[in-house]
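Support request from a user on the community tier.

User writes: "When I paste my C-alpha cells into the form, the page sometimes reloads and wipes my input. The last time it worked, I copied everything first. Here is what I submitted, just in case something in the input itself triggers the reload:"
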C-alpha cells in the first residue's frame, strides 16, 4: 500500500489561483464537498494536463458548480509522492473500501436511515457525478482507520469511467481518467507550469 516513486498530477483552476501557487504565495486547498467521489482532498488528473484544462474551462462556463469563480482557466502541475495510498487498482484497496461500505450500511440500517446515493448533476448525466454515496464510503474508510489507530491514508487513486463508449461495443469510455485525491499535503513535493507541446 506504500506507493513507490512519484507521479505527476494536474489541477485545473483559475489563472490567479495557479499563479499564486506557482509563486509560492499559496497552496491548493482541499475540496470538501459531500459529493466528492473520493472524499475530501486536493484532486489531480493523473498525467493529463489537457483533461485538467478541460475541467477548468467547464467550471469557467458553469460558475454555479464552483465555490470560487474560474475567470481564466489554468492548469498547475504537481509532483506527487503518493505515500500510503489507497489505490483502487489493487485488490487489497478494493477490499478495504468494500468492508467500509458494508460497515457503513449496517450503521445506517441500525439507525433506520437511508444510505446516501449517487445522483446526476443534471439532465443527461448518466455517470451520476454527484457521488454522495462514494464520498460517504471513502470518508468512513478514514474514520474506521482512525478508530482502529491505524496509519491514515495519504492519498487515494482511482479510475473514473466517464462518458459514452469510445466506440461501438467498447468498455472504454470517452472521458475515462485516473484521479488522485491527496489528503496529506506533504505528498505534494512541488508545483510546476506544464510545457504544453510536450504533452501532445
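"...and here is what came back when it finally went through:"
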Amino acid at each position: 500500500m506504500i506507493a513507490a516513486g512519484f507521479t505527476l498530477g494536474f489541477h485545473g483552476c483559475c489563472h490567479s489561483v495557479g499563479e499564486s501557487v506557482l509563486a509560492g504565495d499559496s497552496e491548493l486547498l482541499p475540496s470538501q464537498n459531500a459529493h466528492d467521489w473520493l472524499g475530501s482532498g486536493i484532486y489531480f488528473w493523473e498525467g493529463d494536463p489537457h483533461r485538467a484544462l478541460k475541467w477548468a474551462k467547464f467550471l469557467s462556463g458553469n460558475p454555479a458548480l464552483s465555490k470560487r469563480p474560474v475567470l481564466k482557466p489554468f492548469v498547475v502541475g504537481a509532483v506527487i509522492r503518493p505515500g500510503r495510498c489507497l489505490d483502487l487498482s489493487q485488490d487489497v484497496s478494493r477490499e478495504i473500501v468494500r468492508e467500509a461500505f458494508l460497515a457503513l450500511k449496517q450503521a445506517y440500517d441500525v439507525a433506520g436511515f437511508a444510505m446516501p446515493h449517487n445522483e446526476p448533476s443534471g439532465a443527461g448525466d448518466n455517470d451520476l457525478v454527484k457521488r454522495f454515496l462514494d464520498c460517504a464510503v471513502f470518508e468512513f474508510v478514514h474514520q474506521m482507520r482512525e478508530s482502529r489507530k491505524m496509519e491514515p491514508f495519504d492519498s487515494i487513486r482511482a479510475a473514473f469511467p466517464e462518458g459514452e463508449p469510445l466506440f461501438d461495443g467498447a468498455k472504454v469510455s470517452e472521458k475515462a481518467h485516473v484521479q488522485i485525491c491527496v489528503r496529506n499535503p506533504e505528498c505534494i513535493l512541488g508545483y510546476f507550469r506544464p510545457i504544453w507541446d510536450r504533452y501532445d
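Agent notes: The reload is a front-end session timeout and is unrelated to the input. DSSP finds four helices and eight strands in the chain. The mean pLDDT is 93. Escalated to web team.
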